[in-house]
Request: fold
Amino acid sequence: MSYVSQRDQDLLVNHLTASEVAIFLFHGVTAEKSVGIRNYTGKHVQLDDFSQLMRALAQVGSPISMDEAYRSLAGQAPISPRSFVITFDDGFWNNLSLAAPCLADLGIPATFYLTSDFINHNSQSWVDRIEGAIDAISVLSYRAPHPINDVFPLVTHDDKVRFMQEVRTAVKADRLTDPDTFANAILSDLAPLGESTWVEALDRKLTWDEARELANDSLFTVGGHGRTHRILGYLSEEEMWQEVTDCLDLITKGTGVETSHFSYPEGFQGSFNELLVANLQEMGVVTAVTTIPGRNSVGGDMLRLRRFFVA
Reply:
């Protein structure tokens, strides 16, 4: 199934301007067709579509690295006309196996933000775990735990998509709900009905050796994306500090490269706060990206960079 149309390509190209930097957010790239509800959001873009998007951007724009974006936005170097930065969150293996070769063929730099626990344990995010669990089962009535507290049929594709949409909205909005604890409760409820699906093309994460390969490629940059992908703005100061420092320390240890770039998990307004921004600055982080849409101008806030969500 293809998720990217000509209209999507035009939308991305239209984000490019003469004097600003557009940053684009991806998660993964896949060469396999989706089955069930796995990848129903198109979080992993089909390889042909990704290639078309990159070619469309490269034909009219100036691909730059995050380091180049920093220098330009800080006024240390001129901004190339129609500049754009490609970024990936989480640390999926397909970033190396599929996205990187495509980018290399076109000479497009990219930044890969790594969630260190995903790399350590080849583990899934809380939302991918739930998606895998309900993909594997069929039940006429399921009562979801707090903060949803409602009954859903989980039989058809549409049933399951509606449930996942409710899950994403409710859990991200509730500061008191730990997403992993919520996911554990659902997986415990549904375990007797079927084994969760694991799709190598969608679920496998980089190893540290593979992350090192990306970090040591002059075209690519690695950055931090939290230790466990928890929403940092919802945590105590101590928990927040631990999430960030553990992540950045493990990236340095695992790749041999010290990073000065960060991506806020989830990235919406409220998922980070002034204290976190100050802590990042103190640690020597020079850029941090959000998921708040928009372009970036010279003199703007380097630790609240805007990104256009693609997939």
